[in-house]
Automatic annotation (TrEMBL):
SUPFAM superfamilies: HIT-like (SSF54197). Pfam families: HIT. A motif (Histidine triad motif) lies at residues 98-102. It comes from Kribbella lupini. The lineage of its organism: Bacteria, Bacillati, Actinomycetota, Actinomycetes, Propionibacteriales. Residues 6-113 form the HIT domain. This is HIT family protein.
């Protein structure tokens, strides 16, 4: 646990939340700023800033919990789909620096849009970038 971390406080029970599910290494609770009805956060119990720092065991537990919640929101909330999102760094919209996954139920008429407009990329730039990442 890290002092002054909102999610560590939720994990510890010192900050109230609407917890929905848990396993040995992760918990899931409702987002208080929901993008859509049923927006959940899944966090490892152990503090890490983002998924680069999280242990493989914590990431596995959080991902498996998120997987089960995707099924729940589709079945129980009649969602048409779901987005699973992890923000890493302030410039990528991370606002709480404790590893977490957003489970965002999607509905046909919800107001959310992709944050970019997909357009074909330059195949040469794509190939060069792939080479840099190999």
């Amino acid at each position: 646990m890290t002092e002054n971390c909102l999610f560590c406080g939720i994990v510890a029970g010192s900050i109230p939340s609407q917890q929905v599910a848990e396993n040995e290494r992760a918990i899931a609770f409702m987002d208080i700023n929901p993008a859509t009805r049923g927006h959940l956060l899944v966090v490892p119990r152990a503090h890490s800033t983002d998924l680069r720092e999280a242990s493989a065991e914590d990431l596995t537990a959080a991902t498996l919990l998120a997987q089960s919640l995707v099924g729940r929101v589709i079945e129980r909330l009649d969602a048409d789909g779901a987005n699973l999102l992890s923000c890493i760094g302030a410039d990528a919209w991370q606002s709480v620096f404790h590893t977490h996954l957003h489970v965002v139920p999607r509905y046909k008429d919800d107001p959310l849009q992709l944050p970019w407009h997909p357009t074909p990329g330059d195949v040469n730039v794509i190939a060069e970038t792939a080479a840099e990442l190999r």
